C-alpha cells in the first residue's frame, strides 16, 4: 500500500479493516492528539469511488451515526475520518451468528434512522450489508453506517428525482442487493430498503436463503431466488417483519418510503421481546439470547431447535460462554460456521464472486 501521500500530521499505527476497495488504518492525529481512521484505496481503480465517497460524506456530515470526516484533499488516495469501533458483522460472527432480540431491534431501528437521514439528504447508499454497520459513539453503543463509495444522489437540488432506466451496470453486493439491482434497474430509495430487509433476515436467522447452499453462490441463482422469495422464507412467523418486506417490495421507483410505517412494524415486533435492553450489549448470558431465539417459531431455526434448546439450558444453568457452548455442541458449531470474507486486490472476477458474494461490485 502506498502510504507516502499521508500527511506528516498523521502517524499510521495498524490495519483496522480491509474491503474490496480500501484498507482502513488506525492512526494518530498529532495536531489534535487523538486517534483517527484513514481509508486508503488499494490501487488507482478505486480513485473514482474514493472521490465519490468524500463528496457524499461531506454532504452527510452532522448526521447521527455518520462518521465525521476529519481530513481530505483532492487527487489523493486516502481520507481521514473519526475512529470507530468493531464491525457489527464481526461481532455477530464471533457470537456464532446469534443476535439477541434486543440487539436486533436496536440495530433495526438505528439502521432505519440512518437510511431516513441519508435519503433526506438525497443520497442512496446502494451497498448496504452487515459489514457496513460499525459500532461507535459513547461506549460504542451506536450504529454507524459507513462506506459511501457506491452511493449516489437520487434527486437534484430542486428535488427532481433521477429518471428510471434499465440495463444499468450492477452496483452493490449480490447477497444484499435488491431484486431491481439484479435486474439492471436504476436504483432508488426502495432498493436501500430492500437491502435493509435482507440484513434484518440475516441477523434474525443467522443466514439468508441464498447463502445457505454453496450451490447457489452466484448471481444468477441469487437473482432467481429473489424473484420468487416469499416473506416467510426470510422471517418465518415474524409477521411484522414480513409486512415490512412486502411493503418495501411494493414501493414505486420514485416513491418516498413511509419510514414511520416501517418503524411502527418494528414496534410491533418489539412488543413481543421480553425485557428488552435499551442499549446494545454483546453479553449473551445477560440477554438470554439463545433462549430467546428458541422461543421464536422461525423456519430456519426450527431445524436446529433441539440443539439450540439444549444450548439455551446450558447457558442458563452453567453460565457457559459462547465458545464453551460451541465446543460442547459440534453440530451447532458446524451450522454456525463463520462466513469467510475474501479480500481481493483487483476487481472481482466471475470466479471470485462465486466464492464470496459479499464483495461490492460496481462499474462506474
Ligand atoms: N472509521 C472507521 N473506524 C474503524 N474501523 C473502520 C472504519 N471504517 C471502516 N472500518 C473497518 O474497515 C472495514 C472496511 O471498510 P470499508 O467498508 O469502508 O472498506 P471498502 O474497501 O470500501 O469495503 P467494500 O469491500 O465493502 O467496498 C469495515 O468493515 C470496518 O470493519
UniProtKB/TrEMBL annotation:
One Pfam entry for this protein is Pkinase
Q: Name the InterPro entries for this protein.
A: CK1_Ser-Thr_kinase (IPR050235), Kinase-like_dom_sf (IPR011009), Prot_kinase_dom (IPR000719), Protein_kinase_ATP_BS (IPR017441)
Identify the residues that bind ATP.
Answer: 39
Q: In the record, what terms sit under GO molecular function? A: ATP binding; protein kinase activity
Instruction: List keywords of the entry alphabetically.
Output: ATP-binding, Nucleotide-binding
Recorded superkingdom: Eukaryota
Query: Which SUPFAM superfamilies does the UniProt record give?
Result: Protein kinase-like (PK-like)
Keyword Transmembrane helix listed? The answer is no
Residues covered by the Protein kinase domain: 10-278
Q: Which PANTHER family match?
A: CASEIN KINASE-RELATED (PTHR11909)
What's the protein name?
Answer: Casein kinase I
